[in-house]
Amino acid sequence: VYWALKALTEIEGPSRVRSYLAEMLRVTDNGYWRDPQKKHNLVQAAAEVEDDAICEALIPFIEDHHEDVRYVALDA
Fold it and tell me: What is the pTM of this model?
């Protein structure tokens, strides 16, 4: 996720990255995933961006099935 977002920032700019992250969080469910690493990386990347839409999109992840994802979302 890190390098893809870095490339998107260079190509499209930070505002596009913020809207992309907010949209990805909205379409990603916060239920059980067998391998939560991708979801964890997405939430962690979103946590590093200051944006109201991203903050709202992170709220459901506070109740995520995986503890690590909950902590990152809550920290954000």
Answer: 0.84
